[in-house]
Fold this sequence. Notes:
This protein has a single domain, classed as Metalloproteases ("zincins"), catalytic domain (Zincin-like, 2-Layer Sandwich). About 40% of the residues lie in helices and about 15% in strands. The protein contains four helices and five strands, in the order ββαβββααα. Zinc ion binds near residues 99, 103 and 109.
Amino acid sequence: MTRLFFNPFTGKFFTIVARRRKPRRAPVNARVEQMRRQAKAELPPRLAALAKEHGFVYNRVFIKNNISNWGSCSSLGNINLNLRLVSLPQELQDYVMLHELCHLRYLNHGPEFHALLEQLCPHHRELKKQLRNYPLA
Ligand SMILES: [Zn+2]
């Protein structure tokens, strides 16, 4: 979400991309640790491959244990991926990663963002619907 602000000192408007609320962390147990190991082994190489294929450059990738999102992208170009992604079918993993990669160019969900995602992932609407079958919490 982008908000427009007015700076009275410069007389100019500026925009701020609103930060998402702090991710809620999930409890850790043996199953989570197993998924974390798998996620660390599998997700970064897949993200790197998708980024290379589509010409994206990100800063760092982090594997997160949270129950508030599947992935996120920061204004510093860092991509966070939920370790639970490894429990999803490959095409849903790819959808989440492509979605976050598109945020490297547009830190919002505006029309340009969706046009880019549509180009890279033509079935993204259907995949987004399928993702709802896999609740995070
Ligand atoms: Zn998004």
